[in-house]
Amino acid sequence: MLEVKPDIILKYFTNLTEKQIAQFEQLFELYSFWNAQINVISRKDIEELYERHVLHSLGIAKVCTFKPGEDVLDVGTGGGFPGIPLAILFPETNFHLVDSIGKKIKVVKEVASALGLENLQADHLRAEQIKNKYNFIVSRAVTRLGEFYPWIQGKFKKESINAIPNGILYLKGGDLAEEIKESKLKAELYPLSAYFEEDFFETKYVVYVPQ
């Protein structure tokens, strides 16, 4: 099997522990195995796993450093993005990954278990069914912002302990001006090209919506 290494992660995240590096290294083999059974990443994309899925997910960490004890919800996680890479990077933060497709959550649980991620819980749920409250809600382009917001409205904790107030951190690409205007949300855009030099990130953003 082709061996793909997480060098691109180490290029931008230089303070990883040996355990974190080992966990990131395991991702390619784990996703290659599970993707062959349950398609969670496009087949042609699997060789680009570290750039297009793992590093893309970690773009959120360039905007917000999650604190120990904070609770983060990943809505529509699919195969575990952005939640699994973030859970590796922030082992003392609690991550709750949900998706409405059960077989995708099966992959998330299997990958998290193989990595020994004790700070991650995964559930086959729609966002609207969740009763808990969180410091941050993350997601990767599951729908337009205006449609996404009603799903998670009212699911934020009142107290913020972070450098930035509790809110949404949404990974999205393209020209977002119209979408943000349509959503009527007060959003801040962080271009990922400011943090990562690869061409893939030229039109990619973290959209931050404080609560």
TrEMBL record:
One of its GO terms (molecular function) is methyltransferase activity. It comes from the Bacteria. Keywords: Cytoplasm, Methyltransferase, rRNA processing, S-adenosyl-L-methionine, Transferase. It is an enzyme of class 2 (transferase). S-adenosyl-L-methionine binds at residues 76, 81, 127-128, 140. It is found in: Cytoplasm. InterPro entries: rRNA_ssu_MeTfrase_G, SAM-dependent_MTases_sf. Its EC number is 2.1.1.-. The keyword Repressor does not apply. SUPFAM superfamilies: S-adenosyl-L-methionine-dependent methyltransferases (SSF53335). GO terms for biological process: methylation. Gene3D superfamilies: Vaccinia Virus protein VP39 (3.40.50.150). The keyword Nucleus does not apply. Specifically methylates the N7 position of a guanine in 16S rRNA. Belongs to the methyltransferase superfamily. RNA methyltransferase RsmG family. PANTHER family: S-ADENOSYL-L-METHIONINE-DEPENDENT METHYLTRANSFERASES SUPERFAMILY PROTEIN. This is Ribosomal RNA small subunit methyltransferase G. It comes from Pedobacter punctiformis.
